[in-house]
Amino acid sequence: MSTGLVIVLAVAAGAPLLLGLLPWLRLPGALLEILAGIVLGPSVLGWVTPDATIRALALLGLSFLLFLAGFEIDLRRFRGTLGRRVALSLGISVLAAVAVGAVLVALGVGGAALIGVALLATSLGLVVPVLADSGALERPVGRIALAGASAGEVAAVVLLSVGLAGTDTPLAGRLLLLGLLLAALGVIAVAVLGAERSMRITDLVARLDDTSAQIRVRLTVLLVAGLALAAQLLGFEAILGAFLAGLLLRALDPEPERTHPLYPVKLDAVGFGLLVPVFFVTSGLTLDLRGLVAQPAAIAAVPAFVGALLLVRALPVVAFRGELPRRELVAAGLLQATSLPLLLAAVEIGDEMGLLAPATGAGLVAAGLVSVLVFPAAALTLLARRSRVPA
């Protein structure tokens, strides 16, 4: 047990306590954990330097974060007219991301394609609480925001893994390997469905589920780790396998809150109780704040990246014009432009592949921090005003 890990765990435990004691401090927990990591890390105080143990737990945290993001996506949201509108909105996002990438290439910024893809993502874990707090989760604005955020998350993870994987395999080969990975998912799905039809296995799982065995959670962790490893061995990023594991489990059990009420709670306990906070704190520890501050051009990139987020993710809500009042349309756009976890993952991948300069990565993460700090609060204000309008 290292001193650094204990400090990281202390931050993970202290952040929600601080937010609970100071309700006026309306900050997302993830943002506070990253800020604490920046202050404690080499960029400021230098009290903690990530060691092998911290980095290993952070990698597990990233995998579980992407798994939980996939688990939040209900594929039934893409049915009918809403699905077609979401596809149009996503198409606009992709075109905007290509335009941003072209501008970055013209400016000589490295990793332009990686940045463009990363901008497509939305932080579902932050969007859902805002919609719930405003009472808009079941309203049209909630359904549109969730569907749009889900589509962006899927597109970003797949493109990040397939189009930008750290391998020399040609694109056609990567698509073939992706097909093999999806085939493996199909085999797993068939096996799970077959097991559910076996009364003996079903009874065994039910008997072990709420004991110290916690068999459903153990099998889930095995699935996440196994698919992450499979994706990595096939030349993709491990996050693709973890994300697909979440999609698969949600597709097999679309309403886990009803069929297995304790299961989502246990997943949150494993993810948000331990692994995910370690990832966020470690992201702060490794952020090159000095490189960002030392270069005026990097500081100037922060508002530029914030504007790019609005262009790529907020502007495409025009696809839903006529279906929502203007205030709700703006709120949905702001929520879709709220992004941080995948930006952190993209910066980590870019650093490993040598695509992003440290200052550029720090600027991109800083823009994500701004989006998390500002956009949900502004959207919540707009939605709260809308809810006070008499019927």
TrEMBL record:
One of its GO terms (molecular function) is antiporter activity. The keyword Membrane applies. It is found in: Membrane. GO terms for cellular component: membrane. It is a multi-pass membrane protein. Residues 15-376 form the Cation/H+ exchanger transmembrane domain. The chain crosses the membrane at residues 6-25, 54-75, 87-107, 113-132, 144-165, 171-195, 216-249, 269-287, 299-320, 362-384. Coiled coil: none annotated. Its main location: membrane. GO terms for biological process: proton transmembrane transport. Keywords: Antiport, Ion transport, Membrane, Transmembrane, Transmembrane helix, Transport. It holds the Pfam family Na_H_Exchanger. Belongs to the monovalent cation:proton antiporter 2 (CPA2) transporter (TC 2.A.37) family. This is Cation:proton antiporter. The lineage of its organism: Bacteria, Bacillati, Actinomycetota, Actinomycetes, Pseudonocardiales.
